[in-house]
Amino acid sequence: MLHSKTKGNVGELRVAADLSKRGFAVFTELGDSSKIDLIAIKESQIIRIQVKTQTDTSNGTICAPLRSCGPGYSYLYTANDVDVIAVYAMDKEVICYVPIISFGKKTKMILRFEKSKNNQTKGIHFVEDYQQI
Q1: Model confidence over 72-111: pLDDT tens digits?
Q2: CA pair distance 120, 95, nearest whole angstrom
Q3: Residue 56 is inside which H or E element, if any?
Q4: Do the beta carbons of residue 20 and residue 99 sit within 8 Å?
Q5: What residue spans define the domains of the chain?
Q6: Is the pLDDT of residue 3 over 90?
Q7: Of the four, 14, 24, 57, 122, which is 20 to 30 A from 44 by CA?
Q8: Ramachandran angles phi, psi of 47, nearest 5°
Q9: Could you report the per-residue pLDDT of 13-28, keeping only the tens digit for each?
């Protein structure tokens, strides 16, 4: 069983590798004191990224949270902090890039791998719609 910090590091590395393959220059933070995990630059476009790693997608979904908490801290990411929440689904080797503006007033987004059993479409977000940055 991996420690949560190790899972986070794996997610950051996977996202950095994916961005590099897409032609971005990728920069990481030294330490762990800001709300930005990665900065990606391509053709003068700068993208501030917070990476979240999910380890269990057995329910067919990925959760993209805006809230982060731990010992002695709790905060909600805003557009002043980051541009994109990148979610790495460790068990499926899938990365989703969710622009922070997509959240609206919500504090998390649930992304589905498949359509819902009741065929609901309103308010449903699919993984495939968030795999490009």
Answers
A1: 888 899 999 999 999 999 999 999 999 999 999 999 999 9
A2: 24
A3: none
A4: no
A5: 4-130
A6: no
A7: 14
A8: -125, 120
A9: 999 999 999 999 999 9
Q: Give the CA distances from residue 84 to residues 2, 49, 93, 116, 122, in Å, rounded to whole numbers and listed in that order.
A: 25, 5, 19, 25, 23
Single-letter code of the amino acid located at 99? P
User: Order of strands, edge to edge, in the sheet holding 108-112?
Assistant: 61-65, 108-112, 125-126
Report yes or no: 28 and 38 within 8 Å, Cβ to Cβ: yes
The neighbour count for residue 4, using CB atoms within 10 Å, is 11
> What's the pLDDT at 71?
83
Contacts with 48 (C-beta within 8 Å, 6 or more apart), sequence order:
36, 39, 81, 82, 83, 84
Q: Which residue has the tokens 């977000």?
A: 125
| 3-state SS, residue 73 | strand
CA distances to 62, 67, 106, 123 from 110, in Å: 6, 14, 10, 10
